[in-house]
Structures are given as C-alpha cells and as structure tokens.
Amino acid sequence: MSKVHLLDHPLIQHKLSIMRNKDTGAKEFRELLEEISMLMVYEVTRDLPTEEVEVETPICMTKSKMLSGKKIGIVPILRAGLGMVDGVTKLIPAARIGHIGLYRDPVTLQPVEYYCKLPADSENRELIVLDPMLATGGSASAAISFIKQRKGRLIRLVNLIAAPEGIQRIQQDHPDVDIYVAACDERLNEHGYIVPGLGDAGDRLFGTK
C-alpha cells in the first residue's frame, strides 16, 4: 500500500490557509503555490541517495556529499500542475520536465487525455507528478498509468490538498506510488470538489472561470 506523507510544516500550513481564502487574488495565489511547492519538494526529496565526493575548498581538500543515483523528472498535470513547476525547479534546476494534459468531464467526472509528453529517459528517472488537488483521483491515476505505459517506474505524487476518495483511488490503482500532501480534507461534494478545499485551482491560478 502506498504511503501518505502529510507535510505539515508551519510555513506550508500558513501559506495554504491564505490560498484557501476566497479573496486571495490570482497573482498572490500563483506566488503562494510556487512557494509551497518549493517547500514541499524539499521534504519529498529528503531520502534521495547521496555519495561521498572529494572537494577542494579555499582552505583544503575535504570529503563532502552530492546526490547520486537516479536523476529527477517532474511531470505537472495540465493545467493547474504548471503552477508548481517553478517552485520545484528552483531547488532541482537540472530536472527534466514532462507534461500530461487531462481534463475532468463535468458530467462523468472521468479524466480525458489530450496531451502526453515525457522525458525520453523517463525509465531512468525518479518522476515527481504535480497537481495541486487530488479530488476523485481519476486524473492522477490516469496520469500515473500513462507514465507506467511509457516505462516510468519510480513515481511520487505531490498534491497540496487531497480528499479521502482521491487517496483511496491512488492506493487502489497504484499501491507502489507514495502520496505527499499539505492537507487531507474532509470529503468531496456532489460536484466532485474538495471540501473545504480552495475551489478550482486552475481557475484561481490563471484568473479564469
């Protein structure tokens, strides 16, 4: 069973509370999403392997540590996932970036694919899937399936807010994928929105309706 990691750092929770406020405008919403994403990826990558290397400082030679093992790839789910990319790449500038385009059918609530482009060497990378909201879990599950179909194996899912229904869907469909969230909210409403949530992340991010 995939693990759920709740990243409850005070800075993350403070910024998330501002994002939840219906009066927070698109500009501030974008900035906060970028900041929270950077704080979250710091925790998500805590267990990345390192290796000892020799470095010459201005004083002398010394042993130090650098990242080793698999390289990183990030895969935002369009469109709201785009708002998390800059925060992640500020900490991991060498990460390759893929994109998966999905939208949720307003009637069936099922994901519909319209775009998928991943790094050519995805099978050799630790892939971090980004989407602010994990609601029904349908879009995230489909995105992870697309990655696996293209030989991606090491996958982590990062969301700001998750509903129990979405978590259950990912654990059922992809028990090998760990989930990292800033908040686990109460439930979904009859329209498939997270309660209390923060509304439609894509619309608030880009100022659309």
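(the above was protein one; protein two follows)
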Amino acid sequence: MTAAANWLGPEEWQAVRLSLRVAAWATIASLPVAVLTAYALARWSFWGKSVLNGVVHLPLILPPVVTGYILLRAFGRRGVFGAWLEQSFGIVLSFHWTGAALAAAVMAFPLTVRAIRLSIEAIDQRTLNSAASLGAAPIWVFVTITLPLALPGIIAGAILGFAKALGEFGATITFVGAIPAQTQTIPSAIYVFLQSPDGGQGALRLVVLSVLIAMAALIASEWVARRASAWVRGA
C-alpha cells in the first residue's frame, strides 16, 4: 500500500480510493437483486420474461453515454426518481459518488446476472424436485440447496461485477461528471489527465494500475469459483 501511495500522486491515489469505494458499494447493493433476477430468468416461466432478459442485458448493447443520460433523466435532481429521493430521504445521486455507484452497478449488472444464471441453470432440477417432494417449501429449497450449489457462480459474478464497476466510464461521466474527490474515478481521471499536456505520466500510471486490477479480478474470479465449487462438491 505504501509503495502504491508513493508511486501514485495525491490526485491519482484519490481516484483509486474513490473507485474502490464506488465499485464495492455497487457490487454489495446490486448482488441480492442480481441473484433474484438470475433465479427468475433461470427457473421461472412468466409473461414478459423475454422483456426482463432484454432489459437486464440492455446496458451491454446501448452506448454507455445513453445509459448515463437515461440515469440522469431518471435520477437527476429534476428526474422523477431523483427528485423523490431527495425530497423524501435527502439522497442525492447526480454529480455525487452515490450516483457513480448507481451507474457502475447498472453497467456491471448484466455480467453479474449472467454468471449467476449459468450457475443456477447447471443445477440438476431433479435435486430440487426431490427436496420439494419431501415437503420442503420453495423458499427453503432456494436457501438450503440452490444458493449453496450456485455459490461458485455467485462469487464469480460478484468479482466480475466489481471489476466492471471499477472500469466504468461512459455512463458515469455522463451522469455524475468527473469532479475531483467526488466523482472522479480511475477511468475519468485518466480522461482528465489526457486532456492536459503534462498529464501523460499520470494517465499511464493509472492505466497500468487498471490493467493489474482487472487481471487480478479475473484470476481471483477463476480461483475463488474453483475453490467454492470444490467445497460444494465436498459438502
């Protein structure tokens, strides 16, 4: 940590701390919703399932700037939800780090859901049916069987979502801007550095750090998923 602090300048280190904070909250807040969404897409049959699947994956298809604009219109201070949140609870999202967390969560959500959904779909339906035939309630089957067996996918999805949230740029800068110490994450700091004639070195350091974090996240995702899978098989 000390070496990293010495290698990075104060503004760069500030962007790193904010990025970690934003990505952590984006992952924590969205993970329960991602698990329930993945379960619904994997196991339930209902009208509008294709629509839900399309909405979940829409951030992967839309330009990030479009997603950011939609968030600004919906959760900005004059937006329908944004105005209500501010008036009712004093929560401000636009041009605030909480808005950056929301944008990161939205952009990372499809990756998290997909990893968890594939894990749930891989569970043998006969195992779930056996538990149900023995009188177990659906919620009990979900908590005691589905969640433990899907644990590798949940962990992998959370790590991938965290890494995606760390690298989110387009939606974030459109929704909350790049305000130092408020909304300037690693990608937006790189963008700001590149606009300055003498910002090349700062941008390069953050680029190297971003690559290292991304690679570490991918390796950790594989390792943790394998360990969790081995634990589930041995349980």
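Reviewer note on protein two: Residues 72 and 78 are 9 Å apart (CA to CA).
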